[in-house]
Amino acid sequence: MAERGESGIEPETELTDPPEVELRLDDPELTDRWIAGTAVIRAGRQALEMVRFSMELVADAYSHRGKNLAMVICGLTVDDYCFELAPGEENQVRFRRELPWECPFTEYDGQGFDFGVGVQATLHTIPVKEGGIRHRIPLRVPPTAAPAAAVAAFAELGWTERSARVIDERIPASGQLYQGHQSMFLTDPAGEGRDFSQLELSFVTNQVGVLVHLRRAAPGKYKWRSRPPTVTFPVAHHEVAHVDLAARARAALDELRVLERA
Description:
The chain is mainly β. It has helices at residues 145-156, 245-261, and strands at 2-6, 20-25, 34-42, 48-62, 68-75, 77-78, 84-85, 90-98, 107-108, 111-112, 117-126, 133-139, 161-167, 181-187, 199-205, 209-216, 231-236. The strands form four sheets. The chain has a five-stranded antiparallel sheet with strand order 1-2-3-8-6, with no helix packed on it. Strands 4, 5, 7, 11 and 12 form a five-stranded antiparallel sheet that branches. Strands 13-14-15-16-17 form a five-stranded antiparallel sheet.
């Protein structure tokens, strides 16, 4: 996979041959959970004096006030972060990073969500261009075993309509390493007289498994402490094929009902 990005200069000042970045992923499917590839930086007509070159993993997210933003999850390692290019010259920079366990997943069971996760390259140059020369390439990120199994457990109970979003806020006292958290909203299309019209699952995932935070959904609220209270239950990656997770989800729902009545 390869995509190019160009300078964000206003059209009236745009160079006829501006600098550009081309990102090439070694494995677009991320089969071994590693992001790796090459960034090709081309100077264009003018020489390019580099102040800094960086790459980051970013996600489309909401602030705690409900504003859209690009959330930086973590940086990627690059082999060269400061260099100069003569007119027409190019430089190829390798980048790599293991996909963090906390990275939001962008799809479930073949369904994509209304946010993206991507690798973003930024060049800060002299002369300075506001925001730098920036380009992003999208990633498809499937869920790891434990979050996928947790969602599947609620599907067994009838909760099969799903949407998801990312909030630029750590879950309090969760021990998260990186910024932000993902929530999934679940709806039972059959209704069946349930006492919760919609549920929200939020995930804190690591190499062992996931701690699922379950609450009554309040999509209009973004700040963690402004949303309804949660109950939690764990799912380990290694146990998903051996335990009755639907029973665990049902028990969490019963606990949530008690909490809501308190």
